[in-house]
Amino acid sequence: MMSNKNKIVSTIDGNEAAAYAAYRVNEVCAIYPITPSSTMAELADEWASKGIKN
């Protein structure tokens, strides 16, 4: 049985989940800035500017 001691759990919306997955598996990600996907682009830009590795 796996231990839950070292797990980090958080609640995120669908845009953040999609941005997280896209950022982690791609070197380049082109996102057209329309309202539903703007959050994805903003998060990817924030993570990149902080130097978070993908």
Question: What's the helix and strand layout?
Answer:
Layout: H1 14-25, H2 35-49
Helix pairs in contact: 1-2
Radius of gyration: 13 Å
Give the CA-CA distance, first to last residue. Answer: 29 Å
* Amount of helix: 40-55%
Instruction: Compute the number of strand runs.
Output: 0
Please, how many helices? 2
Structural class by SSE content: mainly alpha
The rough form would be described as globular
Strand and helix order = HH
Question: Overall mean pLDDT score?
Answer: 85
Low-confidence stretches: none
For the report, how would you describe the main beta sheet?
none
Percentage of residues in strands:
under 5%
Report on this model:
This protein is mainly alpha-helical. The protein has a domain at 14-49. Helix content is 50%, strand content 0%. It has helices at 14-25, 35-49. Helix 1 (14-25) packs across helix 2 (35-49). It starts with 13 loop residues before the first helix and ends in a 5-residue tail after the last helix. The mean pLDDT is 85.
Using brief descriptors, characterize the structure shown.
2 helices; mainly alpha; 54 residues; 50% helix
